[in-house]
Amino acid sequence: MQFDNRSRRSKMLRDINATRANNQSFPSSGVGNLCMYDFAPIEEITLREFEEIAEQRLKALRKIEELKLRHEKGMFDEYKASMAKELNPIFKPCTLHQINNEELRKRIRRDDVIGHFALRLAFCRSPEDTKWFVTHEIELFRHRYMNETRAAILNFVTENKFDGGMINSDEREEHLKEFADSFGCSLEKVRLADIWAMDACDALELARKRKVFLSEGKAYLEYDSLITIIVQRLRANMYATMARANQYRGVIEEQDRLFPRLDRLTKGGCGGKDFNAAEGQSISRHQIDSASAQFFPLCMSGIQSHLRKNHHLKHGARRQYGLFLKAIGLSLEEALAFFREEFTHKMDSDKFEKQYAYNIRHMYGKEGKRQEYSAFSCASIILNNPPGPEDCHGCPYKHSSEERLRAALKAAKIKSEHIDEMVALSKINQFDKACTLHWEVSRGQEKGPLSTLITHPNQYYELAKEAAGGGPKVEVKTEVKMEISTQ
Ligand code: SF4
């Protein structure tokens, strides 16, 4: 084990030295607003600044998640407009092309790279966190790409050594028919289009979608398809370097100073955070009704009421609710007893054991593939497995009729003016804002607004417990010198 750490540490030092030797601090700092993040920054920075820059970027990624939730497929124009209106003002790199002051531009580029690598380090520890980070970084990149001029994009492609370029008119005429067939357009359109020849290895995703013409190791594609190639490389690069950064974490001697800060960044309810019962956190089946009334979001308190009333839950609700209860600390034994007590109002225990107990043990990783399952995030509840007419799972702000949503909020003793506000928010797909408002008004306005949006039912629960006095203490910031490299 020690040998393993030593070899990893020396490999890490070799990588850092190679980066230094290349003098690659911010290589993609040309005229454009885009960056491939091929090299980690190597300058010295205080922990406080590191944390502030990372928080700023995380805020932007959370905003993107919020906007994606608000705009379903097919609402691309609205999504694009909201990104410009709500993301640009809180994240300076998105407006870099509007800034003329060269010093300021340099500073923004530097923070862009530092923020990106700080979050790579924070989000590299679990596949779920990594996936969440990569997905939203790619979305951020696409947004910035769309605001770039064609000249800046062409410069970016050259600067980042993508092997390819625009073909000339003779070459175009030679393959005119093949291009029209591959791109699914007319010969006339091909004659007017900019066509690029790239290394076929860079265009695998487009080849899979049959959107390119392949010949002699080259992939021919339309200018509009360039983004797919760039994003494919960026995504692969992020996954590979984050896997490596995760290996290095064990040998970085920053357990006391840096790691608690990185841990804090991944808390606070991003879609990729796994909620698991913290050590010592437990709840018994007898406490569930009281916890539901005080600390559960509307989706979970609704399922609890349905269970008490009907003594049964269908598959979707059993899974959504069962994993939520597991993540707030309900043990397997208590979960089995809890569901058995309710279900056996309507069936004998033999039937419960045969049809339902396996399912509960499976959620706790004791059957089947013996896999640990995480509680569902709001994004997953909203986007996957929508409830049918007989189901009680899902997100009430997204899936319930206005009448049922009003009734549920009234039963939760929410004032009518707040109900109106939450219904209005849910009508414009701002489910997270509606849920956050529910959290706020349920705790009394004197507690002040919540500083984050609710994006996970277990985040709602943990913040509600914390507000009631049962949460973790806030750590005081200190300032020390550090050097970062996550490559
Ligand atoms: S927004 Fe999330 S936590 Fe709130 S009710 Fe919907 S799914 Fe539950």
From TrEMBL:
Gene Ontology biological process terms, A to Z: DNA replication initiation; DNA replication, synthesis of primer
Originating species: Pristionchus mayeri
Transmembrane segments: none
Organism superkingdom: Eukaryota
Alphabetical list of Pfam families matching this protein: DNA_primase_lrg (PF04104), DNA_primase_lrg_N (PF26466)
Protein known as: DNA primase large subunit
Keyword field contains 4Fe-4S: yes
Family (UniProt): Belongs to the eukaryotic-type primase large subunit family.
One Gene Ontology cellular component annotation held by this UniProt entry: alpha DNA polymerase:primase complex
Cofactor(s) the protein needs: [4Fe-4S] cluster
UniProt keyword annotation of Methyltransferase present: no
